[in-house]
Amino acid sequence: MQQAKRILITGGAGFLGSFLCERLLQEKHEVICVDNFFTGRKSNVSHLLDNRSFEIVRHDITFPLYVEVDEIYNLACPASPVHYQYDPVQTTKTSVHGAINMLGLAKRVGAKILQASTSEVYGDPEIHPQQEDYWGRVNPIGPRSCYDEGKRCAETLFFDYWRQHRLRIKVARIFNTYGPRMRPDDGRVISNFIVQALQNEPITVYGNGQQTRSFCYVDDLIDGLVRLMGTKEEVTGPINLGNPAEFTMLELAELVIELTGSRSKIIYLPLPADDPRQRQPDIGLAMRDLGWKPKVQLRDGLARTIAYFEDLLSLDGSQAVAAE
Ligand SMILES: NC(=O)c1ccc[n+]([C@@H]2O[C@H](COP(=O)([O-])OP(=O)(O)OC[C@H]3O[C@@H](n4cnc5c(N)ncnc54)[C@H](O)[C@@H]3O)[C@@H](O)[C@H]2O)c1
Q: Which pLDDT score is estimated for 187?
């Protein structure tokens, strides 16, 4: 049996972080969840509060933190455009100052540290699918730049700490992930479509709906993160984690309408600025180094996510969420 570790998860009360807390507690580790509750919610982790191996700390990672831990998963950062564009200066600070603080902590206590980076580091890419050695095409001054460039700078810091201080680092480039506990108000395409469909409201497709995305179910993604953390020291990443199966936005809208049995009609709106036309991971490296590939089909993952939103909306959850 593997030894129990003490593990810090920043952003642990968020969508991905809360599933990661659960997974690591199941593996009998001690988990310290740090969150400033900007987009995270206590209700995402309230079911874990009785577990003696779980602690929750309200803290903003743009300020230093001192805790003795063996591993750090750095997930803190709003991930959806509506939330990261709400206070773009804070978004960059979270990515950059947050990374500096967490890397400093890892150095001080000798912890291994994993960064939740993003496919956004590829920007609006010229090559498909994207491999890790592609440097990306990112607008440095646009409305998405606070997130994209913040995450790119965080990667730079991780690799400089690795080169300069021999820190044990792991960098995951996460592609669109979905599942229960996404916020109904986060403006991401899956939650948007599901909420609109469940309310029989028009489904808003941007552009002509032919732009494609790939979607990874949360359980698969968490498994990839945990496998990456468990790799040998030489494996640093960056490593793509996502589901290569590509769907157009129109196909997604039609599937959501089918699975919800909705009466919604599809309407078309102009494309937002810097919206990438296509994004698809090449996961060859993850398959080779982690023995990982996603297992959950979009149809199955969507059904589970729809069930979550049905419950939430039947409790008038969107208002409860907004009030938290
Ligand atoms: N979900 C995806 O599809 C996706 C894709 C690529 C990358 N990521 C990355 O994964 C991580 C988690 O994403 P998510 O989807 O769970 O988003 P989320 O918004 O649900 O979670 C982010 C969490 O970080 C917390 N947070 C934000 N700023 C903070 C700060 N300064 N100090 C402490 N806590 C702070 C929020 O309150 C929230 O709980 C993010 O770093 C995101 O960039 C996610």
A: 86
